[in-house]
Amino acid sequence: MTTASHTIPIVQVRSILQGAVHQGHAPEPLLRRAGISPGLLDSGRSRVSHHQYARLVRVLRRVTRDELWGLCQRPLPLGSFALGTELMVRSQTLGEALRTGFHFYHLLLDDFVMRLVHQGDTAHVRLLDRRPINPRRDYAKRTALFFTFGLASWLVERRLPVNRVRISAPEPSEYTETSRLFQAPVEYGAPHTGLSFDAVWLYHPVRQDRESLARFLRRAPTNLLVKYRDEGRITERIRRYLRRHLAGRLPSLEEVAEDLRMTPQTLRRRLREEGEGYQTIKDEVRRDAAVDLLARPDLSLMEIANRTGFSEPSTFHRAFKKWTGLAPGEYRQTVLESAGPG
Questions:
Q1: How many other C-beta atoms lie within 10 A of the C-beta of residue 154?
Q2: Is the dihedral angle over the CA atoms 156, 159, 160, 161 positive or is it negative?
Q3: Beta bridge pairs of residue 114
């Protein structure tokens, strides 16, 4: 069986590098230390593995001495995330924890302030600018918003259902997967960056403690990228099913529907409701598996093609180039050339 985690679009790599570049660091050595080839930046469709992105976060943290990687006016001191999370864990409810965390970061950040607003049946997290916006601060706000969502989900041990996400910047020309990450509609060009959810969640008890915090911090904050994906969504259930069958002929939609104990018509309707298509899911599962496997020098391209469900290397070659903009051999070379201690 081939396993494959979700991969990360190259636009996220470009964005997170902005602060270090602004500080005068050349991006190429940073990427190579993370096992990412600088050549991947030239392909708008290329992607990196979760492991590579996590290494890049660690590299940037060390180089910039900043937990927001040089994106803001002044550094966020190392240890801030751990201390802020420890303060939040002491709270009784999610609402109390969020207010505690926002107050803590208000003391450390000059660029924007985070607010929790309770209006009727809805709670709003709002990130309000304190300095003129630029692309670095915009990405810092998006990062803070995602960490807020991930921490809230971890604190209550359930994925926080988000009703809407608002981004103050214009809609980007490249697909960023923001809607997929939050699993909520996204409004660009909004008056402020933020998200909203049902206010009843403010009263949910915090289910973490000092012991679970220690385990969480060993992999934070990069574990927030994947920890609280909604495994109950039909899309994720299909992904898990396809991963188990990846090395052979991928099942038809009808076969998946039978395994999930629903009719094909119901499965198609559920996918439409989640804004997904079965062929797209199949392609993404194969693509993500291939990205992971191409980092393994012990596997030939023929073996990788077979493990991702292709009977012919030429078919695999065409598909991978369509997905990422690079041929599999070229992608492998860029990754292996950059692999090394991070």
A1: 25
A2: negative
A3: 127
Residue 287: DSSP 8-state = H
**Could you give the 3-state DSSP secondary structure of residue 166?**
strand
Closest CA to 71 of 23, 32, 105: 23
Output DSSP code: residue 93: B
pLDDT of residue 133: 87
**Residues 271 and 257 sit within 8 Å (Cβ to Cβ):** no
Q: Is the dihedral of CA 129, 131, 132, 136 positive or negative?
A: negative
Query: How far apart are the C-alpha atoms of 70 and 90, rounded to whole Å?
Result: 29
DSSP 30-62: HHHHTT--GGGGG-TT-EE-HHHHHHHHHHHHH
Q: Which residues contact 173 (CB under 8 A, 6 or more apart)?
A: none
Average pLDDT over residues 252-281: 91
d(CA 341, CA 2): 25
Task: Determine phi and psi for 188, rounding to 5 degrees.
Answer: -95, 160
Sign of the alpha-carbon torsion through 51, 56, 57, 58: positive
Radius of gyration of the chain (CA): 21
Strands 162-167 and 186-188: parallel
Q: Which long-range contacts (CB under 8 A, 24 or more apart) does 64-68 make?
A: 64/19, 64/20, 64/23, 64/25, 66/19, 68/19, 68/140, 68/143, 68/144
- Cβ pair 164, 119 in contact under 8 A: no
Q: Hey, which of 157-171, 239-253, 327-341 has the most confident mean pLDDT?
A: 157-171
The pair of structure tokens assigned to 334 is 């860029």
* pLDDT tens column, 96-135: 999 999 999 999 999 999 999 999 999 999 999 999 989 9
**Is residue 145's pLDDT more than 50?**
yes
